[in-house]
Design a protein that fits this description.
Keywords: Lipoprotein. The structure is a single chain. By secondary structure, the protein is an all-alpha fold. Helices cover 77% and strands 0% of the residues. The radius of gyration is 27 Å and the shape is elongated.
Length: 285
């Protein structure tokens, strides 16, 4: 409907000002198509980025019924399915995209990403192997690092993580992933350093803050680090630290941290209170 209004308005202008002038009409027709194309492109961007994922999925599926070979609509559907966490469908749709004659290396990387989300790590690795080695992007190396991690190929993982960090101005998430990799390997000191670095790039990244506490707890560092946290976040991190202390046998310290977490939280902190009651019951028994 919006396109019809635009076309009607512009066509009216042609009738008024260019009647009988074929050149003017051709120029106006081109202008109309430019407006329609620009309008559609803007709508596609909105659907892929900020629209409700289910609404976007319906939009692109409808568009593909009318024009099934349009790769931009196929990409839009695939990205919307990822946003909607329909990962199996997303992987299937990205496969159609990469089989399109106009597909790019970016599409192959997005296909690999969808496969990882769907749990098909082996196929994702094969897809990335087919991406030309000269195609160097942050997302490609982040995925390569994740796959190397899954395969426990630590040297390759470290190399890929380092490359990915150098290819983005917002490396917080990949630094967090790298830190978690170090954490699972037992390299707690290096993990701590990477989590701190991730937080310096994104102070809102609570996952990195929680992982930092886990890395410190594993080293029996039971003091809260100097990081920017809200009151609720501090209570939650104290709770994580308490559980880490208890797990390592430092029960008295863990009990004190649970009490501090409960006192810090601005509302009732049920998880911490329940853990404290269970701990006190065990100590009494």
């Amino acid at each position: 409907m919006r396109h019809f209004i635009l076309v009607s308005a512009l066509s009216g202008a042609v009738v008024l000002s260019g009647c009988g002038h074929e050149k003017t009409r051709e120029e106006a027709d081109r202008a109309i198509q430019d407006v329609i194309s620009s309008d559609e492109s803007s709508l596609n961007e909105i659907m892929q980025s900020v629209a409700d994922p289910n609404e976007a999925i319906s939009y692109f599926k409808t568009a593909l019924i009318e024009q099934p070979d349009r790769i931009d609509m196929q990409r839009g559907l695939a990205r919307s399915l990822v946003r909607g966490k329909r990962h199996t469908e997303a992987a299937s749709t990205w496969k159609q995209v990469v089989n399109h004659p106009e597909s790019t290396s970016d599409d192959m990387v997005d296909y690999a990403d969808a496969l990882i989300r769907a749990g098909d790590w082996d196929l994702a690795e094969k897809v990335l192997d087919d991406v030309p080695p000269t195609f160097e992007t942050y997302k490609r190396y982040r995925l390569e690092a994740m796959i190397a991690d899954a395969n426990k190929e630590w040297k390759k993982a470290d190399s890929f993580y380092e490359t990915a960090v150098g290819l983005t101005t917002r490396p917080s998430s990949v630094l967090n992933n790298w830190g978690y990799s170090k954490l699972t390997r037992g390299d707690y000191k290096e993990a701590e350093r990477l989590f701190v670095e991730a937080i310096t790039y994104d102070k809102s990244l609570f996952t990195a803050k929680n992982n930092l506490i886990l890395a410190r707890g594993a080293q029996r560092k039971y003091q809260m680090p100097v990081i920017d946290v809200s009151q609720i976040e501090k209570a939650q991190l104290l709770y994580t630290l308490a559980l880490s202390a208890i797990k390592q046998g430092d029960v008295a310290i863990g009990q004190g941290l649970l009490e501090e977490a409960i006192d810090t939280h601005p509302q009732h902190f049920e998880e911490a209170a329940r853990s404290l009651r269970a701990l006190e019951s065990n100590v009494t028994n």
